[in-house]
Amino acid sequence: MKHLYKYLLILSVNLLPFSISNLFAQSYDLKKIDIELCKIRNDDQQIRHKLIEAMQKPSIELISIKNEMDSIDTNNQMYVANLLDNYGWPDNLSDSANTAIFLVIDHGGKSYSEKYFKMVKEKANQGIISKSDAATLEDRILMSANKPQKYGTQTKGDIVYYVTGKDASKSKNVLYIWPIESPEKVDELRTSVGLKPINSYMQQIEEMHQMKVVWDKSLKVSDFKDKKRSKKAKKQKLK
How would residue 235 be classed by pLDDT, with cut points 50, 70 and 90? Predict the structure, then answer.
């Protein structure tokens, strides 16, 4: 199985629509890099719009689209990691190319995002990417580490059971605001990075996803974690 995994990994690299190693080995061609990053941005956004549309009417197609998105993300992450690890974040890129790098880091998962977050923060301070994007990523990293978020940008779905003890299937379409470190200061912090007040943000999420958004300030991270564990334990007992 281990050898099969290695083979599949090598195969996936060979099937990329461009040769990452050749692109960087031949020369540092900023124009080519910019063009490739713009393509990456388009691919990243198109597949996510496709997934959002499919989620409105769940079907077997949803799984196929999710798998396609995972494949695109993997290829994009390999390209951006190679770029950043060898050359850093290039200067003089187009806005679309800079956005592409951010999106790949943002969608890269916990360890990937953590690795490159310092670069994101630097580019936000330079005005290359928005401070609101950097703040959103910081919240996502904190949530992934089971810590309270700072800016209130992250929600958690499918947790009705964990919070209320009720079967989530009986209370569909609910999102909870992940616990916030300083609820009394959240709007001040949001304003400092160009985010709208949290109540307006919640309304926007509700309209966009057609899901109720709940911000229960009494909830702590442990409330989510403990009830999640209890659900798993209950399932194991039934086996």
Answer: very low
From the list 211, 209, 181, 186, the residue with the least C-alpha distance to 199 is 186
Task: Write the DSSP string, the chain.
Answer: -HHHHHHHHHHHHHTSSS-HHHHHHH---HHHHHHHHHHHHHHHHHHHHHHHHHHTS--HHHHHHHHHHHHHHHHHHHHHHHHHHHH-S-SS--HHHHHHHHHHHHTS-HHHHHHHHHHHHHHHHTTSS-HHHHHHHHHHHHHHTT--BSSS--EEES-HHHHHSS-GGGS-SEEEEPPBS-GGGHHHHHHHTTPPPHHHHHHHHHHHHT-EEE--TT--HHHHHHHHHHHHHHHHHH-
Rounded CA-CA distance 81/79 in Å is 6
Tokens representing 40? 């990456």
CB atoms within 10 A of CB 106: 20
User: Among candidates 134, 141, 125, which has minimal Cα distance to 195?
Assistant: 134
How big is the chain, counted in residues?
A: 239
Please write the tens of the pLDDT for every residue from 194-221. 999 999 999 999 988 778 899 999 999 9
| Burial category of 1 from C-beta neighbours within 10 Å (exposed 0-12, middle 13-18, buried 19 and up) | exposed
